[in-house]
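Let us walk through a complete example step by step. Step one is to write down the protein sequence. Step two is to encode the small molecule, adenosine-5'-triphosphate, as a SMILES string so that its atoms and bonds are unambiguous. Step three, shown after the inputs, is the structure prediction itself.
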Amino acid sequence: MADIITLDDVSVVFESDGRPVEAVSHATVHVEEGEIFGIVGFSGAGKSTLVRTINLLERPTSGHVIIDGRDVTALRGAALRELRSGIGFVFQSFNLIDNVTVAQNIAFALKAAHVPKARRRARIEELLRLVGLEEKIDSYPSQLSGGQKQRVSIARALANHPRILLCDEATSALDLETTEEILALLKRINAELGVTIVFITHQFDVAKAIFDHVAVMEHGVIVEQGTTFDVFGSPRHETTRALVERYLGVAIPKQLVPQLPSGRLIELRYKDEGAFEPLISDVSRRFEVSINVLHGNVGYFGTQAIGTLVVLVSARQEGQRGAFVVQAAIDELTSRVADARELSVALNDDIGASVDAIFADDADGVDGTDTSAHTAGAHHGNAHKEVLA
Ligand SMILES: Nc1ncnc2c1ncn2[C@@H]1O[C@H](COP(=O)(O)OP(=O)(O)OP(=O)(O)O)[C@@H](O)[C@H]1O
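Step three: the predicted structure of the complex.
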């Protein structure tokens, strides 16, 4: 699929108190036509600044913005206005004008694009039908719920048939149920109208529910990007790992630790289901080690599953030979899953704390497809079966 948006080596430097602040540093992004592309990262990572370069609300200090194969970085005046009318923007705080009606809020966007007055009402009705709010056409924003306000702001953003919709934390001010409704609406707009969506969020469940590709930002730099399934399934950068740990990961309760047989704790991450049972039994038989499954969790990305298991690998014999076979078994396990690492209980605690700031408000799955198997404590065969069931 062709790129509809290319950000080529884009940097944005602000001046703050006389000192330069590099909000975005050499970011390169390719957004394919018709996809939902997401950007995640800590507060202050540069996500908003990067997205605002797409319609040149922020002008790159260096690098190029290419829309539909055309370098638009230097556009000004009428050409810039035309570019912007083809790119809708949805904000976290809705940005509706309070003292005019829903119809008038949308009419402003049509007027700005020189749509004749006689055609505006029909277009407004069509847009409100699309977002399911026909009956609110003459209401004022203060008479609407948060979700309804966001629907109006989406209708307004779509008024001039944009091919691109930019959403900056568009669901962050909404409760979980309303978030689901808005995500379903955006998915429908993406699928039925073919609108390409670039979406910033700090909500992990939003990311995994709707993003086709995702970029992870930190300190102005894109540290990792790819398909959402690959990036979250095999995270390579520490920040991504931390995000994934917090939501797909599992922590071993401290009180369990003294009860564990000696051995090494390994976290295994696999993509798609069903691959584990034969792997565990195969490795434990071939290497003559015991592999106890302590904890497991499966998260769904659309229809694709990413699973996590924490296993304790123990030697069946004492001494150097035992340590050697445990290492060989761990090497074999590691080579046959998407991602693996050795755990300590303290490490789990640290990770939990470090990512709270990013995905602070996501206790439950937005798409309702998460399943968790909390089997800590039952660290023998039964746990294994529960996790894989
Ligand atoms: N107009 C500006 N002038 C000076 N510094 C700015 C300006 N806009 C943003 N910054 C700085 O640039 C950095 C990136 O900000 P940005 O808002 O893009 O991050 P973000 O990842 O979107 O964060 P958040 O999720 O908190 O909005 C921050 O350090 C911010 O303080």
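Step four is interpretation. Residues 14, 16, 21, 23, 41, 43-49 surround adenosine-5'-triphosphate (CB under 6 Å).
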